[in-house]
Specification:
This protein is α+β, with helices and mostly antiparallel strands. It folds into 3 domains: 1-8 and 163-242 and 484-511, Periplasmic binding protein-like II (D-Maltodextrin-Binding Protein, domain 2, 3-Layer(aba) Sandwich), CATH 3.40.190.10; 27-159, Dipeptide-binding Protein, domain 1 (Alpha-Beta Complex), CATH 3.90.76.10; 250-476, Dipeptide-binding Protein, domain 3 (Roll). It has 16 helices and 19 strands.
């Protein structure tokens, strides 16, 4: 594989794309399934929300319990225990309270920890399910106690809790990993994992460049392919020789947001955003596969949800139907001879957004709406334009990975009771539905019942899909290439777990 690995320390300010390599050596609390994006326990027996190991105390605090799997040891032979989990929670608390950006704020609410053998108990100041996403890694206490976890280590000398150990580490250079003989997983036949003896990640260099030429020359067995037209065509050209190009949806969701107030009238004095039939007509005008086919944009054409980004989506009720959409537009237009106008504002810095923005002309033409795309510099668009509401329709992306932390963050962003830049960039105010949405936000933040949380998220998604203050368009995609005559077991994963989520199961062909 080829990427830049500046550090194996996920808390370092230099951390970037570190999960790709970190999956080889970190002890993970959970992994993320590639198809459902559900959290599945790794180094622990169960997650607290699945096992009922969440207790709201009489004083309003919350205590959760984790249990490390039986027999797990670090690569240096030291046993992995509940003390390591407790140490990790304390370390993340201290970093969160110090303002370290890549440590979730909820970890700053840790009040106390305790441990007994393989058990760890962590008490938070308030009840919330957000902790379960936030506590995702286990750190080796015996090796890291007293170490500055932000500036004092690059992670390469930590004992491994993953399938490999670091053999050679050159920051922003080549990294070689070798088999961890202490690793705990076995396959269905009882064979010890990982299958591979070694993995080498090579560096992409100082400037962004394509891995495709090295891949087709077989200098790489596996490659993360840039979402560039030329790269994808290069890989596809090698398919007759055994190259396989796989794709998966990522959590980055492109969408259209309707502006309901702000400075919208300065952009489109005739905007009909406040009319429900108009918004529904826009939703029914979108032929997603045709848009991507026309533009060549390598994104996913399925209909994602915003809060539940994979699986069945309530947005699928708006199937492509330009005839029915046109009838809705006729009703909105009434006796007026003037056509309805739509003005879409987005960034002009990215080629793909321009292609999609231009292609949407066909959608609006199909329902008789006068459409114009407006392309702005990203600094202006993500600053003044969104904050002041100087757009009619806006197109940008939110990240939605289906995790509790992310779902709570998106609930806040869509909450009609707040104003930009905190959230509600479209200044949506949907009456009773909006009031109910705000109630859902408050309850979702405090419930520790996972079934109730899922019910609340589903209800909030239904409100968004019914009221249509926003329309999800596409999941962006990740692209992974590999040589089918060299390696097997590659399963693309667009979530935070990345393509190396199952690297212990990768295997050389014939071995």
């Amino acid at each position: 594989m080829e990427t830049s690995v500046g550090t194996l320390n996920p808390f370092s300010p230099n951390a970037f794309n570190e999960r790709l390599a970190g999956n080889l050596v970190w002890a993970l609390v959970y992994d993320i399934a590639p198809e459902t994006w559900e959290r599945t326990p790794e180094s622990v027996t169960t997650l607290p929300s699945d096992s009922g190991n969440i207790e709201v105390n009489d004083d309003g605090t919350m205590t959760v319990r984790y249990e490390v799997r039986q027999g797990l040891v670090w690569s240096d032979g030291e046993p992995m225990t509940g003390e390591d989990v407790a140490f990790t929670a304390e370390a993340m608390r201290d970093m969160a309270l110090s303002g370290i950006a890549n440590v979730p704020e909820v970890m700053g609410t840790v009040l106390a920890t305790d441990s007994v053998d393989r058990l760890a108990y962590i008490t938070f100041s308030e009840p919330t399910l957000a902790f379960e996403d936030a506590l995702w890694i286990i750190l080796p206490r015996h090796a890291l106690e007293g170490v500055d976890l932000v500036e004092g280590t690059d992670g390469s000398d930590w004992p491994s809790g993953g399938p490999f150990v670091v053999a050679e580490f050159d920051p922003f250079g080549a990294v070689r990993f070798e088999r961890n003989e202490q690793y705990w997983k076995t396959d269905d036949d009882g064979r010890a994992l990982p299958y591979l003896d070694a993995v080498v990640i090579t560096d992409v260099g100082d400037e962004p460049q394509s891995p495709a030429p090295d891949f087709v020359l077989r200098a790489l067995d596996v490659a993360l392919v840039n979402p560039w037209d030329a790269d994808l065509r290069t890989i596809e050209g090698a398919e007759p020789d055994g190259a396989v190009l796989t794709t998966a949806p990522s959590p980055v969701i492109e969408h259209i947001t309707f502006e309901f107030a702000g400075a919208r009238d300065d952009v489109n004095p005739g905007s009909e955003n406040g009319t429900a039939d108009y918004r529904e007509a826009v939703a029914m005008s979108l032929d997603r596969p045709a848009i991507l086919a026309e533009t060549g944009v390598p994104w996913y054409s399925g209909v994602p949800g915003m809060l539940i980004p994979v699986g069945t989506s309530p947005w699928e009720q708006y199937s492509y139907d330009p005839s029915a959409a046109g009838n809705l537009i006729d009703g909105v237009q009434g006796d007026s001879e003037a056509s309805i106008q739509a003005r879409l504002t987005t960034t002009g810095n990215g080629d793909y957004r321009i292609r999609v923005g231009d292609a949407l002309t066909t959608s609006f033409d199909s329902i008789g709406v006068d459409y114009e795309p407006i392309y702005l510099d990203s600094v202006l668009f993500f600053g003044e334009t969104l904050e002041t509401g100087a757009f009619d329709l806006g197109m940008w992306a939110w990240i939605s990975d289906g995790g509790v932390q992310n779902q709570l963050a998106l609930l806040d962003l869509f909450n009609p009771a707040v104003e930009p830049p905190t959230g509600n960039y479209g200044r949506w105010d949907g009456g009773e539905s909006a009031d109910r949405f705000t109630e859902i936000v408050a309850e979702a933040h405090t419930t520790v019942d996972p079934e109730r949380f899922d019910e609340l998220i589903a209800e909030a998604e239904d409100i968004l899909a019914t009221e249509l203050p926003i329309i999800p368009l596409f999941n962006r995609a990740i692209h992974v290439a590999y040589w089918s005559d060299v390696v097997t077991g590659i399963v693309p994963n667009g979530s935070a777990s990345t393509v190396t989520w199952n690297i212990e199961s990768w295997q050389r062909v014939g071995e």
